[in-house]
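Entry for the shared binder. Reason: the reviewer on the internal report wants the predicted structure included alongside the sequence.
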Amino acid sequence: MDNGSLIAGIKNGNDKIIEDIYLKYRDEFIVWLNKYYKSDFDEASDVYQLLMVQFYENIMSGRLVELTSDIKTYLYGIGKNKIRELRESSARELSFNLESDISTEEVLIQEGKMNRVEQALDELGEACKRLLELYYYQKRSVAEITVTLEYKNADTTKNLKYKCLGRLRKIYANIV
C-alpha cells in the first residue's frame, strides 16, 4: 500500500492499517531506542505508544496529509522527539526536587552556571554542539558518533571532540 492510500485509509477509520503499522515497527523501534538512547524496555514501549498516538493524531487533525519520507523514518523522527521530551521532563523534575533541598543562593549560583553553559554552547556552533551533545548527553560512544556524523574515523572524532571541548571552555571562561 502506498503512503497516500495508507493515510487515507487511517483517516477513513481503517483501524487494521494502524494496527499493522504498530506491529510492524514496534520491536525494531524498541531495539533501536535501546541501542541509540540507552532506553530500557518499559521506557521504549512508552515512547512507542506516544509516537503512535502522535502519528494517528497528526493524520486525523490534517497535519499529516502526505508523507515525504518512508513511514519508518517518519515514525522514528517522532520517537526521537518523544524520548527527548520525556527525558527533559524527567531532568526538570529531578532538578526541581534537588533545588528544594538546597538554599536559594545555591540555586541562583547553579542557574547562573547553567545559563553560562547554554550561552557558551550557543556560541560554539552547531557541529561542535551536536558532537558534544551526542557524547555527553546521549552517552554515545566515539564509534557511534563517527558513524552518525559521518566522520572519517574514530581518531578524527576524538580529535574534534577534544577541540570542541577546548573551544567550549574558552567561550565559557570569557562569558561574564
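Summary line for the report: The chain has a mean pLDDT of 84.
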